[in-house]
Design goal:
The chain is an alpha/beta fold. Helices cover 35% and strands 12% of the residues. Strand 6, helix 10 and strand 7 form a beta-alpha-beta unit. Helix 2 crosses helix 3, helix 5 packs across helix 6 and helix 8 packs parallel to helix 10.
Length: 462
């Protein structure tokens, strides 16, 4: 699987091409002409970093290992502890960063096996200043960037100072252009990072994209039940096996909203990203899928048909159709931070006859018989506006994505979506997402109730 990683790593040269900011001075010891003032103020305003009680930032203070992992957690959106990974260091109990360290280590920001071989006492040493080679190793480990066939270190006159356990990490980062060293051709592996340098490092990680790619599988589900009567219904026990498999094999769930924010540089792509999506807004998504994901701190996106959500309670009371969740239940899921709701039309999820043809198509993707192209465009424009309005009024945000009913689309429908601010559209064509491509008409991986567990694994490991 190709890798797409939003990062760069500390060529800490003072002459930086930085973004333009306009901030008041937040810390008395960071003047407006300090080389890192823009990034420090930006990160402070975003809540990524804090100063000291006396109003200082101490930009030249060395960063500890605990402080480093806390910032990396923020940068990579690591906010949970993977219970399957051992994080039992002897020296972190009661430490202010105990949970931060456990989150980082359990999500791969650490070489657990290597450290155990080097550190007989198995201590994390949270209060020790972090060195450049330690920082390189942690990030390279998290991003799986280690290569023992590269020989770039001898370019730097102090390369012999690099510890043997850090060589593959630093070689790989140099090879990818992520470590550039200093003007005097030193790499300074044992040197520490200052607080100002770390802020600049993280700012670069969040804003610079390298030339790798990551193909992202987007799993498409619909309804869940105890048994499967047709392909769109996945057996509950099978779904549990599938999501447990994702955890056991290192996949990290993101939402479609995350995908958009990653594409514009506002978020970082985790290792082995995957999107769990469900179409139509079935009640089983709320009563079954959501609780199971919540137990595992996993995320998902649900594409809803707005009119069905408005009428969910009435339809259930009158036994009309397969039950859907209502807006209150949708809001509960969204407020959890784990579920993202996007559009699946407001009320255009029906098959209709096509003029001069025996085929039927979705009524969002084709004109009705006797309908002009202009009227067709007006109809679906009104539909998507109502869908966006419903999500905005009931959930408090504007949707950025649309899943085509039946995977069918037209040039007119794509134009209408773009005119209404939709940034991502999905089909049901089989395939993975290449985030460096256009994010319209994205492929997905259909998970069918007819799939065996082996079928599911094969679809992920194609």
């Amino acid at each position: 699987m190709k890798k797409y990683i939003l990062l760069t790593l500390f060529s800490l040269v003072l002459s930086l091409n930085t973004k333009t900011y306009s901030y008041a001075q937040n810390f008395f010891d960071v003047s407006n002409n300090h080389w890192a003032t823009n990034q420090i103020n930006d990160f402070y305003d975003k809540g990524i970093i804090n100063g000291y009680e006396d109003g200082s930032f101490n930009p030249n203070n060395k960063v500890t290992r605990a402080e480093f992992v806390k910032i990396i957690n923020k940068a990579f959106d690591i906010d949970y502890i993977n219970p399957t990974i051992n994080t039992s260091f002897n020296d972190i109990k009661g430490h202010w960063a105990e949970q931060e360290i456990k989150m980082a280590v359990s999500n791969g920001v650490y070489d657990y096996v290597l450290d155990k071989s080097l550190n007989s006492k198995f201590n994390f040493r949270p209060n020790d200043p972090i060195t450049r080679e330690e920082a390189s190793t942690m990030i390279a480990t998290y991003l799986d960037l280690k290569d023992n066939k590269i020989n770039k270190l001898p370019y730097f006159y102090d390369f012999k100072e690099v510890s043997y356990w850090a060589k593959t990490s630093m070689e790989s980062l140099i090879e990818k252009g992520l470590i550039k060293g200093y003007k005097d051709k030193s790499i300074n592996p044992k040197g520490g990072l200052t607080r100002a340098e770390l802020v600049v490092l993280v700012d670069r990680i969040k804003n610079i994209t390298n030339d790798y790619e990551e193909e992202i599988p987007v799993l498409m589900y619909h309804h869940f039940d105890d048994v499967s009567k047709f392909g769109a219904v996945v057996v509950k026990d099978e779904f549990i096996k599938q999501i447990d498999y994702l955890i056991q094999n290192g996949y990290n769930t993101i939402t479609v909203k995350d995908l958009y924010e990653i594409s514009i540089g506002e978020k970082l792509l985790p290792k082995k990203p995957i999107i769990i999506s469900a179409d139509d807004g079935y009640l089983s998504n709320y009563e079954f899928m959501y609780p199971e994901l919540k137990k595992r701190n996993m995320e998902a996106t649900i594409f809803v048909i707005g009119n069905d959500i408005y009428n969910a309670d009435y339809n259930i009371q009158n036994n009309i159709g397969v039950p859907k969740f209502n807006w209150s239940q949708a809001k509960e899921m969204v407020d959890s931070g784990l579920i993202d709701i996007q559009s699946h039309t407001n009320n255009s999820h029906n098959k209709v006859s096509v003029a001069n043809s025996t085929y039927q198509r979705g009524n969002f993707s084709t004109p009705l018989i006797g309908e002009s192209l202009e009227d067709y465009k007006k109809r679906i424009d009104n539909d998507i506006k109502l869908s966006i309005k419903g999500i905005k009024e009931n959930l408090g945000y504007t949707p950025v994505a649309f899943a085509y009913p039946f995977g069918e689309y037209s040039k007119i429908s794509e134009k209408v979506l773009k005119e209404n601010g939709i940034k991502i559209s999905f089909t049901i064509k089989d395939g993975f997402v290449d985030i460096k491509d256009d994010l319209y008409l994205i492929d997905r991986v259909t998970v069918s109730g007819k799939d065996s567990f082996e079928d599911f694994k094969n679809k992920l490991n194609r």
